[in-house]
Prior knowledge:
- The complex is a heterodimer.
- By secondary structure, chain A is α/β, with parallel strands linked by helices.
- Chain A folds into two domains: 39-141 and 282-333, D-Maltodextrin-Binding Protein, domain 2, CATH 3.40.190; 143-281 and 336-370, D-Maltodextrin-Binding Protein, domain 2 (3-Layer(aba) Sandwich).
- Chain A contains 15 helices and ten strands.
- In chain A, helix 2 (55-65) links the parallel strand 1 and strand 2.
- Chain A is globular.
- By secondary structure, chain B is an all-alpha fold.
- Chain B has 26 helices and two strands.
- Chain B has a two-stranded antiparallel sheet.
- In chain B, helix 22 (472-479) packs across helix 23 (485-514) and helix 23 packs antiparallel against helix 26 (548-573).
- The longest helix of chain B is centred in the middle third of the chain and has 35 residues, at 366-400.
- At the A-B interface, helix 1, strand 2, helix 3, helix 9 and helix 15 of A face helix 1, helix 5, helix 13 and helix 20 of B.
Amino acid sequence: MKLSMTLMVLMLLATPLSGCLEQDATVDECTVLPPGHDDDGTLRILTYDITALSEQVTDEFTNQTSIPVEMIKVDDAGGILDQMMLTKAAQQADLMIGLDNTYLPTAIENCLLQPHTTSVANLSASASTFYDGPLAVPFDQGDVCLNYDEDALSEANISVPTHLSNLTEEQWKGKVAFPSPVSSSPGRAFLVATMEYFSHQSEGDAMTWWSAMIDNEAIITSGWTEAYETHYTGGYGEYTEGYIGDAWMTVSYCHSPGVEAYYSGNYTHSTSLMLEHANFHQVEYTGLINGAAQTEGAQLFMDYLLSEEINANMPENNLMYSVLEGYDLPETDGYRHHADVPNAVTTMSYEEIATNMETWLQSWKTTTQQA
Amino acid sequence: MRQTPRWTPRFVVIFAYLTLASLPFILALVRLQVVTGHTPIEAFWRFGGVYGASEALTFTLIEASASALLTIIIGLPIAWHLGRHEWRAAAWYRAIFSVPFVMPAIVAAMGFLLLIDNEGMLFALGLDFRTETGLIGEVAERTGWQHPGHFLALVFAHAWFNLSLMIRFVEPTLARLDPAWEEQLGLLAQGQTRLGRIRHLWWPVLGPAVLCAASLSFLFSFTSFALVKWLTPFNNTLESLMAKSGGSAGIENYRVDTSEIVMSASIVQCLILLAALYLTATLQQRHSSRFSLISESGARATRGPPHWKGRLIVYSGLIFAIAPMAAALLASFRVRHGTIGTGMSYQWSSAGWSAAWSGDLSTMGIGEALGHSLLYAVCTLCIALPTGWLLASTIHALELQNRPKLAKALDVATLLPLAVSAVMVGLGVLLGVLKWMPSLFQWDLLPVLPHVILTVPFVVRVMLPAMRSVEPKWSEQATVLNLSPLRSWYHGYFSFVRGPAVVASSLTVAFSMGEFGASWLLVRAGSWDTLSVVVDQLMSRPKFDPLVQPAAMAAASVLMMVTFVLFFLAERFRPEGDGGGF
Lengths: 371, 582
């Protein structure tokens, strides 16, 4: 009785407040918003734990420009979009780094970014294909695809899959880990890859395949880290506390085996599954936040990120490809040798992603829930 | 004459606190209503259809009940033997048993993972809780129980975490029980059998304390997040489900599904926890009234030193309490050499500590992060202690004025923050600050706000039983000594509650230092990271670098050691027979 009374009181309190909490009127056309916070001379960057953005890198920027830098860190790329959406009325950061091409259309549609003046003349074609507008600049890139443990397959005497439907067979039961597309950006990228893959097949469709994968006890994790570090047998998870090692295959980058080799003295038993169109070219962007206070510092930092100084060491410092022409992975310790390059890359257009992403996610949720 | 309390300033502070404590939840609820288009009642009824919610609720209820039961099974024998005999190092033991309760959950999770992994102690004993081979695998295969190892690891971790609740509630009652009661019962027919003694003596005396500790264990296991995330990767509690969805909740025309999850789950969770808290408050009141003024030292001396069985149980308990922390400390010195390809080996080295102190691997060194944590903790203490004190003294004053219903209502209201999900607190604070004062985001001490909300209930829980035990005549006697009002208050009142006040302070500081959940939900610049945030940042780095793990464990060890020191200091002020509350 008292509990229900308490709930009723909370609800009664909640009702009159609802009017004053509704969000500001929707902006029909994107206009540059006034600063959401005071400009105290510090550049605030909204990002996730991108390894390239070390203290050394930000200190160097501060030495060059005398602009101090502070990081507002969230869990992942999705967290950057969530944070910008939540604080739309009063943005607390000036620059975002890390939204990828599965999230960028949503950010642009919601007027979360404002035009920048950074020069993008020497961008590689692969980095600029998806979006070359004035609201975001590519920062790094890589192809998302399935990675598998060669040793595990060899020991179990299982053939390398030649079609995604092979993964729905009994021998793969409980042996594939996927980061959820609902909460993970590589997971989202791979969902897009499956849409593209099945659009090139004469039979079957992506959602039927996902349903069959759930029936085959595929492991779904909330993020890439859990899938790769905790479950995947082919990666560096063995170094990690909490490693379970129950999945022979997972979603990562096609060059992840190269990274494994680079850090393990040219040794890896992980490799990429090179199925045509079963991959997605991911580009991560940086952009000036609409509502930024330190726009000058943000512009300078964008220029700094696209400098040769940063891009020359992108594969070692950020474990991703540079977005500039003329830079590739290093040969050191088998980095380039073990990094796979897909033949037919999924290059879904900006419009396709913008139009369909939410529908695909909803379908995926419904499908996996019903399976 | 006992002075009549000044009600107006009291109620201003109480109103301010209750507003502060409930407003984030209301703000979050209102925003979620706007986003989803459902009223709270509709959201409650839609719970069953929300993605993953029913499974999460089932798992949460099972694991929380099992955790509470295991806490009783492990904690009661320890409390029994610790309370009934003369232990030379009793203060040390109590402090050791207390530390797990204030350990940051991520540190506890790492400690348990170190114990159960393939090179851990339990694996060597044939118990593979992680990859579930051997005996655990056999259980899984024969019973069809999915991941029993993960579940057992979680339940044991929760029992470890809540062990101090059982000891803090039960041990003081036992320690002050007059041995003559047992002797007299032994002469009666009802005391001839063990069952009779339990029924006629132990259950009436210990029952409320045991149930109170169990209901709080249930509550803390119910809201577990980090331990669930790390130890049972295949399952969600309602809290972990909300935490995974919370980031994108509350945004109009975007990911409405996550808002639905958070809204429905938070309402169901709040109702269940309110019931648990009501039970806790009722039991604690009954438990407080059962205290009698029997000398602890006298009672202990009558029963003498512990026998071998008692020693075995208490020492085993100490090993259980220390093991995860010791594992984390050892791991801070254990550095990997080589790779999977070339073959791995481990060497003992302080390189992890050097890396952690210099900040090579994180945005800042642990010295700086410790400074931030201490500053937050001190600020939290400065607000939470007087607020909690005032709330507790008001509840007690209402009880003395024979207004039990109002006293009970206020008592339960102070516990409300414990019933609200950290996700809702974070979202509510964020929405409130955004709406009314966005410039607060640039204020480095903003995390103090959720810390205060979350620590005040503990101050009340510690201070209230202590205030109930102070006889009004002591204040009256001090008044007639012609002392200044301040000295009169000090000698006639404060000196009797000084010990619990120190315990409450140390608990507040320790909680604030270990708090992680509410801090990371706020939009803050990273230059003010706390120690627990640094531990989490380090743990999320790729482990190619062999120093990442030792550095994270070094940061966690600093946090553990500071907590140890706080509790040992608090034990020095703990009065004889006082349970230290909670």
